[in-house]
Amino acid sequence: AQTVTQSQPEMSVQEAETVTLSCTYDTSESDYYLFWYKQPPSRQMILVIRQEAYKQQNATENRFSVNFQKAAKSFSLKISDSQLGDAAMYFCAYRSGPGGGADGLTFGKGTHLIIQP
Amino acid sequence: KAGVTQTPRYLIKTRGQQVTLSCSPISGHRSVSWYQQTPGQGLQFLFEYFSETQRNKGNFPGRFSGRQFSNSRSEMNVSTLELGDSALYLCASSAQSAPIYEQYFGPGTRLTVT
User: Would you give the DSSP letter of residue B37?
Assistant: First the structure.
């Protein structure tokens, strides 16, 4: 079974600074998708960024970018120019590609990101 | 376009009772997935429905069941509630079942079992 590990239960960053959240995963599959979701205090899960494993280029979405290291099974999220609205729980998630074994999204335990004004 | 809606938002039940939660996906979406979120176990996949058929199921006991209607609305049912079933239940919809399609989450239903 696939597992997702987020080793940082909590991270703190000054507003306007850059922060990197770590995520590692374990899988024997070659075709899969990786995601970062944000869950603010309202509890509504919001997709931040997605990476297809077959793509070598790291995904970027405005201030959010990932460092995808397939061989190392690492998928970190970098948030640049941190804003107060970025404060939330961040979850790393894995999903198998078509025909794969993972049912639904497999989530890590989450990282609580605090933004210091 | 309206987002995913879940009803009710909050629910208090007694151990041994049963409960039904409802999820209305985004218009045009045919896939609905359910997740359970607890402080101890985190987010866990319950099941996925696509075109009224259960496509995938997580590792949960048979007390947890679901269904999907022809309009893609989905319900999940938990019978013989246990204290450990207290959780935030999240529903997510996507246009299709394939993983390339983004899942959009609803606000969740907070279930408390006493």
Answer: E
